[in-house]
Specification:
Elements: E1 8-12, E2 20-26, E3 32-36, H1 38-41, E4 47-50, H2 53-56, H3 62-66, E5 70-74, E6 86-90, E7 93-97, E8 102-103, E9 108-110, E10 114-121
Antiparallel strand pairs: 1-10, 2-8, 2-10, 3-4, 3-9, 5-6, 6-7
Length: about 120
């Protein structure tokens, strides 16, 4: 998959994540999704991620997703798998971001029908 920073992509269950993403919305209640990171850290236990409430409300509505206007300020790419710091400027708000809001390239979406993510690093 050829992606660039700023793209919004849809991921399906059991699909490898193609880039580092900010989780925007999911098929699951409360914006949760589940990922397997065994390709990154060897762990086979599923990890939980959750979209911000402010973006989760977009759901699967393509028009709302295509009109998403936000700006991310975050740390530079690094090798820290369990740490991420950033801010999303969206709809007049500044929202804090951490690793629980991100999906890293190489992890696999599990037990979640779909999710949308904004490419942070490609």
């Amino acid at each position: 998959m050829n992606v660039k920073v700023g793209d919004i992509i849809r991921m399906e269950n059991d699909q490898f994540v193609a880039a580092d993403l900010l989780l925007l919305s999911t098929s699951e209640p409360h914006g949760f999704c589940y990922i397997e990171t065994s390709e990154l850290d060897g762990e086979t236990n599923l990890k939980v991620r959750q979209a911000l409430p402010e973006t989760f409300v977009m759901g699967d509505k393509l028009l709302r997703i295509s009109e998403f206007k936000g700006q991310i300020h975050c740390e530079l790419p690094n090798n820290k798998l369990n740490q991420f710091e950033g801010r999303l400027h969206y709809d007049g708000n500044v929202l804090p971001l951490d690793n629980r809001k991100t999906l890293l390239r190489g992890c696999v979406l599990r037990n979640t029908r779909w999710c949308y993510g904004l490419v942070i690093f490609a």
